[in-house]
Here is the input.
Amino acid sequence: MGKPETIRAYLDTVQEQIRWKRARPVLARELEQHLTDQRDAFQTEGKDPETAERLAVEEMGDPVSVGTELDRVHRPKPQWGLLLPAAVSLCLWLSIQIASFWGLSSFWDYVQQDVMISLLALVVMALLYLGDYTLLGRWAGALVALGTMAMALIVLNYVIQWYRPLLYAGTYHTQLLLPAVVTPLAIYRLREKETPGLAACVLLCLLQLGEAVIWMLPVVYLPGLVCNTGLLCLAVKKGWFGRSRWNWALIAAYALTVLALMARGGNLTGMASRYIALLHAGTASAWDPRAVFSQAKLIGMAEGDLLGLGESPLHWLMGWKWEEFLLGVLAYFGWLPFLALQLPMAVLLVTGWRKCLRQTAVLGRLLGTGILLTLTWQAISYLLQTFTGGWNLFTLFPYPLLTDGGKALVLDCALLGILLSVFRCGSVVWEDARGRVFSGRLFQFP
Here is the structure.
C-alpha cells in the first residue's frame, strides 16, 4: 500500500495503530491541527493546496511508525500504585472483620455479610475506574443541583421527622461526598463566572452545613471546612475565577463563618478545651493513649492489661470498636504492626497526590484534589483521635479502607474509583476553549 498523500488518509492510518479506542480521536485531533498548520504554512510559501497537503503529510513521517509510538505512549495505565494499596487495605479489612466474629454462633452470617460488602465496594470501584469521569463534567450543573436538593431534603426531614434513618445516613455520609464531588463540580461549572461564580460556590459550601447547624457537632463542620477551603484556595490560586482582589476575601469569609457557627454552638471552645485537657491529663479509662504508647513494644503485647480484655487478641477483636482499633493493635501487637497497617493508605495517598499535581485538565485536578483531601482528612483525623483519646472529636468516620464501617467503605471505594478514572484517562482528555472537558469517545471527527 502506498503512502497516504492526504491528511484524512494519514490520520486514518495512524488511528489504526492505536489500540485504545478512546485515545484515537484525541490524538487524531492533535495531529490534524499540526498537519493543517503545516499545510497552511506551505500554501503561504506559494504551494498549491494539493502539493501543500502532500508535503505536510510527508514531513510528519511514516504514519505506521507515528501510530505505533502513540500507541505505546498512550496506553491506559492500570494505576498499580493505587490499586495494590487499596487491594491490601480491603483484604485487611475483610480479614479483621472475619477474625472479630470467629467462634460466634452467627459466624457464617457475619462472614457472608462482610464478603458481600467487600464485593459491593470492589464492584463500585471497578465500574467507576473503568468508566469515563468526564461525564461528571458534562452533567456538572445537574449533579450539583441534585446534591443541593439532597441536602435540603435531609434538613427538611429533620424538621418534619419523616424518615429517621435518612437523618443518620445524611448527617455522616454526605460529608464524604459533598466536599469530594459536589464542590469540585460546582467550581468546575461556575469558574467562568469569575467573582460572582466564586460567591455562588461559597454559598453552596455554606448550604452544605445545613444539617451541621442543626446537629451542632464539630465533626460535621470540620470535613467541609478543611476540604472546601482547600478546593476554593486551589481555584483562586489558579485564577479560575479571575484575578479579583475580592476572591481571597470571599474564602476568608467562608472560613470565618464556619468558625463563627462552631463558636455559636459552643463547639469551637468546647473542642479546644477538651483537646487541651486530653493532651495534659490523658483519660482515666484503660484506653488512655499515653499509657498504651509508653508501654507498647516494638512487636508483641504491651506490659499489663491496658485494654482490660485479658491476654487474647481474639477476645479483643470480638469486642473492638472502630474508634479504638489502631490503639488496640498497638497494645496487643506493637509498633511495627501498628505502622504496617497504615502503610497501604500512606502509599496510596502519597502516590495519589503526586499524580494529582501533574493533572492538566481542570476537572481532573479538581476531582482529584477533592477526593484526596477527603481521604487525607479521614486518615489524619482518625490518627489524631487515636493519639489523644478524643473519640468523636475530629471525625465520625473510620480509618479509610481499613476499620469498621460498611457504608463508609463503599463510599471510600467509590471516591477511589473516580480518582483512578481521572488518572487512567488523564492523557486522553481534551478541554475546549470554554473549558468544557471531553474524552475521546465523546466527540468524533468528520
The chain has two domains: 7-73, 83-284+308-442. Residues 7-73 form one domain.
